[in-house]
Amino acid sequence: xxxxGPDSPTRQGCARSARTYIREEWxxxxxxxxxxxxxxxxxxxxxxxxxxDTDDRAPLPGxxxxxxxxxxxxxxxxxxxxxxxxxxxxxxxxxxxxxxSSQTQPALEQLYNR
Length: 114
Hints:
Layout: H1 18-23, H2 26-33, E1 39-43, E2 67-69, E3 76-78, H3 80-93, E4 97-101, H4 105-112
Parallel strand pairs: 1-4
Antiparallel strand pairs: 2-3
């Protein structure tokens, strides 16, 4: 989360996926601080792979608005774009501006083709 000036708060979670950022309440701490005019940089993707059957930070496969619950919990899983849409909706509802940041395809290819 970015505001203007030297007292700008940062709410980052190292090695968090979009799913775990919500589940572990990191996102709620951002939403609670939002005010009109804030700018929020949203960057996920590098920790969002895998299968939700074997990885507790993986999203549902797909790109739509599908959801599912995790067996034995009340956690609602979304697709990766579903999580990003949630972040953007929360930011804009607060009157703030979302800034989406992502890895580029060439950067991913360089990272995984080494």
